[in-house]
Amino acid sequence: MAFPTSALLLLLTACSGVFAGGLEPQIPSVASFKPSNGAFELAPIVQIVVDIKYAARGTPSLLDFAGTFRDDLQAVVPYVALAPVLESPFVPDITFGIPTIYLTLDTAHEYKLFNGKPTDEGYNIQVSKSSVTITGSAPLGVWWGTRTLLQQAALQLGQGKKKVSFPAGSISDSPGWEVRGFMLDAGRHWFEASFIGDLCIYASFFKINELHLHASDNLWNPAFLYGEGNEGWKHLYAAFRFQPPPGSPIEGLVPRKNESWTKQDFAAMQTTCAKHGVTIMPEIDTPGHSLVINQWKPELMENGAPDHLNLSYPETIPTIKSIWDQFLPWFSASEVSIGADEYDASLANDYISFVNEMSSYIASKAGKSIRIWGTNEPSKTMSVSKDITIQHWDFPGDDIPVQLLKKGYRVINSEQFFLYLDGKTSEDNQFPQELNQDLIWAGAPGGKGWAPNIFSPTDPTNNTTPDDPNLRGSIFALWNDWGNNATTALEIYYQLARSIAVFGEKAWAGSDVRQTQLTRAQFDAAYPLLNAAAPGQNLNRVVKSVHGNIVLDLPGAYTSLKTLIPSVGPPYTLSFSVKPDSKAASTGLLFSGADSKLHVANLTFEATGQLYALGYVLPTNKFTSVSVHATREYTYAIINGDKANPHYWYTLMDIWGDYMALGNMSFAAPTAQIGGDGFRGTIKDIKLTLGG
């Protein structure tokens, strides 16, 4: 095997040793591990080698995945200095004394899902004293193998070990189900493309392979939508997130261009996700949930239901096809979702005809199949095509999933009882803030825990077996029913972070098939370490402190100052004193950062495009001391040391147009710049410490 002379001079010999404990329990658990003698120790210099025969195979290619793996390994194990990735013929165990991680393919090997169908996502890892070889039947399987290796390293370092050792032996692993995803409601809450890319990177660490992107929808206010003579529907928040180019015949569909993704935005987001093994599954929801389309073209509206399309109107279906014509070339996924839930049951035949026509149209236009949300549309003469995957979400709102499976429909489990979250709150606390751990671990019949084959917590006849040939897998969902102002993007991440990890275990390994599945105690021990170590993103907004828990300590007086710290995640305490000039007491910024801003006026936080006023007016020409305390659940201020009267930042949410609800807000500390945007005054004694 040929190595550059410079690399040879830098590479060190791997140390041998005994790894007594075997593999650390990780998320998701691996299917099998057969130990042998010795260990592969990650020395200060390690080489990653890609089998040149397969380096260009796939999109992303094996070489692409190797490059990302190299960056991630450097991030997870800081003491390692990695030489550039090499392409070379693969010769097992020939390392010339150099610690080497090989990535290669065995295209003849067949990995299988629980139902016996082949999968490209399985992998083997062979560990000897001198090398680690990760083999898959396709590049994606090798990628998941690199996640296993990274997690083992992160768990060891997180437990205080100074060096990482992989126990010698062989790992064989593959997922139980094809679809392992999470859904993000971006139709009712705006998210930057960079944030969605970071979510993909984080989810990939736990072997999640899909992000279902619900990209069009509206708030639901029955009085505005269905009140007789009420035209409030014209102004009710509704959004379509894909931005057509200027001059497009459907340009008017996007009323909020600053809250939509251009083709370039989406391509970058899609590429980032794909580079980490995650496919974006785009959804444009019709013929229900279509208010944004009817606000653009009211003539398409079903009489008395502004959020429904009139499918019998001659221009409706051609208009929907024109929307897909614009955006289908954007999407790299082999499937798309047309939504198709909660439509008028009295128009069942119209609905079924529409769904089948769109399935045929999208297949002929782009070679893609479609998914729909499960909706029981009662028709005695028509049925939805079996070419369509049905995403079950509700009993009894759609067909019973076990009956659909028996009829030959392919089904994805998104049963709301187990798998629904709602941003910040839900009506009568129907849905938890994160996936309910009691339900996930022991809430299914028999107490074995939830898995994608479990649809009902109480009725075993409504569940199927893990090897059901038509059960494709599962997607859990985070909805944003209360819109943009209910949460910040980072608060959405806080809801998703642990949920993604526990879902990753259950969607990959199940609950009662493999002997190696995690216990709840093992998961609880591993998760904090893996959440902190997940590479490629910094959604926790972690920063290094300069001394102890101090991030900033600026005792001087300032009118404007830039720092090298874009944002700091909670928990933190940000304290300062401020004296606005009388001429500009209500304008300008005290602090600004990547995720939030703190305005002088009413001590107003700004995040995700929304304003949240504390309602405190700073006096002019005198200093006021302010101490901002934040956790992931709330943010409050202590003014002039008055701890008995904390001031909380709240949001006011409209719950289904029925009542208003207060919610606490959590903000990242805005630390990129002190002062600015016209601020005139003095800020002094600035200190930011970690801990709320």
Please give the count of helices. Answer: 14
Poorly predicted spans = 1-21
The largest sheet is: 8 strands, mixed
Mean pLDDT equals: 93
Q: Please bin the fraction of helical residues.
A: 10-25%
Strand content: 25-35%
What report would you give on this structure?
This protein has 692 residues and is of the alpha/beta class. The chain contains 14 helices and 39 strands. The protein starts with a helix and ends with a strand.
Give me the secondary-structure topology.
Elements: H1 5-10, E1 32-41, E2 45-51, H2 62-76, E3 81-82, E4 86-88, E5 100-105, E6 111-112, E7 118-119, E8 123-127, E9 131-136, H3 139-158, E10 165-173, E11 179-185, H4 193-204, E12 210-214, E13 216-218, H5 222-226, E14 238-240, H6 263-274, E15 279-286, H7 291-296, E16 301-302, E17 305-309, H8 316-327, E18 335-339, H9 348-366, E19 369-373, E20 389-392, H10 401-407, E21 411-413, H11 416-419, E22 420-422, H12 437-442, E23 471-479, H13 489-509, H14 520-533, E24 550-558, E25 561-562, E26 567-568, E27 572-580, E28 589-592, E29 597-599, E30 604-607, E31 610-613, E32 624-630, E33 635-639, E34 647-648, E35 650-655, E36 659-664, E37 669-670, E38 673-674, E39 681-690
Compact overview of the structure:
With 692 residues, the protein is of the alpha/beta class. It has 14 helices and 39 strands. It has 3 domains: 5-173, Chitobiase/beta-hexosaminidase domain 2-like (Chitobiase, domain 2), CATH 3.30.379.10; 179-533, Alpha-Beta Barrel (TIM Barrel), CATH 3.20.20; 550-690, Jelly Rolls (Sandwich), CATH 2.60.120.200.
